[in-house]
Structures are given as C-alpha cells and as structure tokens.
Amino acid sequence: MALTAAFREQSAFAYDDPPSSRDEVLARYRQFREISKQHHQQILASISGDALLNQARRLGLARGKTLILEDMEEMNYVYDLAIHTASPPRSRAIDRFAGSARFAPGSDEALVLEAMRAARFSVLVIERHHETAGLVATDLFRRTEVWLVDIGLESSMTAGEMFATRLFTPARFSMTAGTFVPFELDMLTDILVELPRRLVDGPFEALPDNRHFTEAIYRIALADGIMDRVTYQDLSDGA
C-alpha cells in the first residue's frame, strides 16, 4: 500500500500534463524504455548465478547446473521472475536495488524504478488501437482497461488477440517489462492444475498477483512450444 501511494505521488506530474500527440507519447515511451533497460541490467548484475539457475530449473530450462535452452531469449522469463518475484520471507531483487539506488527525487530514473516496483503481471485482450499511440486492452482478471504503448505490439497485434505480460505504468500509459506470452483461454485448465489449491480457491482476480501463476504460464508456454511463435525485435518508430 505504501509503495503504491508513493508511486502515485511521485508520478502525479505525468498524469496532470499528458502528452497530446503521437510524437510526444513515443518520445516519452522511448525515454522510459531506455531507463528501464538500464535498471534491468543493473538489477540483473546483483543477482547470483545460483539464483538464476534455481529459477531456470523451476521453468524447466535447466538440469542441475546446466541450462537447457532452445533460444537465449528464453532467459527473459528467468530474468523476469528473478527480478520481480521472491519466495517469502526473501526480498525481491528489484526492492533491494531500490534500497541502494541513489536517484534524485522526481527524476525520470526514480519515476521508472518506482513504476517497475509496482509492476503487475496481467493477461490482456486487445480491444483496439489507441487514438494517439499504442493499444487499448482489457485486463481479463482485474477487468480494467489498459492503455499500452509498445511499438512492436502496436504493429503486430489486432483486436481479440490475447497475451500475458508484466506491466509497469510510469505515466498515463503502461509498458511491458520485457516478457510476452501468447495466451489462449484453454491454457487456464493446465495453469490451474499446477497452482496450489489455496490459490485456485481464492479470488479469481488475485491470481496474477501470485508468482506461482506467472511461473505456471511461463513453464507451460515454454514446454508446449508456444514461445516458438514469438520473435523479439527492436523496431523503429516507423516500422
């Protein structure tokens, strides 16, 4: 609760003066994306190899101390979980980084870091293209509308398509934290089988907030070859 309140207070200026054109939105998006990449790399540098291997084993991407990858991009799912989740009572890597980071209050670096700390895993269905830039989507579990700015997804996704990702919101729009999983409703059966009974019996809308839910989606998608349909590219604004 304190983290959410602090983030809202710190990012208030971004909501009070929203960008009015596509160029302004994309300029802000590019700036936030670059800062988030820098934070991502610095956080990863603080995570031990053993911790990454342990997370890779949980996703079926390692046996013992040997990684078993079809593509290095599969490590993105290991990194996401290692940065944003932790088993109680352990602290998250992103929170440890925030505790030692020294960014000026109100700076874009501080703003993006707090947004990343408040990131939430979501399953989205695309509704339409946003009139300014990006996409409008619905969070299937929380039943909320999301303005998502992502150059690659805007150019490749159409209404009705579904995917799972981790979202952070540094301004009026949200951005992906780096992972993407094509989603189909029939995946829910396999996901629910893998989850602890206490989660399945709990509130439906709370499922994506639990690390076991994210792990299950990643593990199933990787094992079933769903990720073979995904290509990660850095696209130019005009792509």
Give structural notes.
Helices cover 45% and strands 15% of the residues. The chain is of the alpha+beta class and 239 residues long. A hairpin with a 4-residue loop joins strand 4 and strand 5 (144-148). The chain is globular and about 50 Å long.
Comma- or semicolon-separated keywords:
single chain; disordered N terminus; alpha+beta; two-stranded antiparallel ribbon; 6-stranded antiparallel beta sheet; 239 residues; globular; 8 strands
Structural class call reads alpha+beta
Please, what is the average pLDDT?
Answer: 89
H/E series:
HHHHEEHHHEEEHEEEHHH
Q: Note the main sheet.
A: 6 strands, antiparallel
Helix content: 40-55%
Topology, number of strands: 8
Determine the N-to-C terminus distance: 39 Å
> Low-confidence stretches at least 5 residues in length (pLDDT < 50)?
1-16, 235-239
What percent strand? 5-15%
Q: What radius of gyration results from the CA coordinates?
A: 18 Å
The protein's oligomeric status is: single chain
Based on CA inertia axes, which overall geometry fits?
A: globular
In the residues, how many domains can be counted? 1
Number of helices: 11
Describe the structure concisely for a colleague.
It is built from 11 helices and 8 strands.
SSE layout and pairing:
Blueprint: H1 2-10, H2 12-16, H3 22-45, H4 49-58, E1 62-63, E2 66-67, H5 75-84, H6 93-100, H7 108-117, E3 120-129, E4 135-139, E5 144-148, H8 151-156, E6 162-168, E7 175-176, E8 181-182, H9 187-194, H10 197-200, H11 211-223
Antiparallel strand pairs: 1-2, 3-4, 3-6, 4-5, 6-7, 6-8
Helix pairs in contact: 1-7, 3-7, 4-5, 9-11
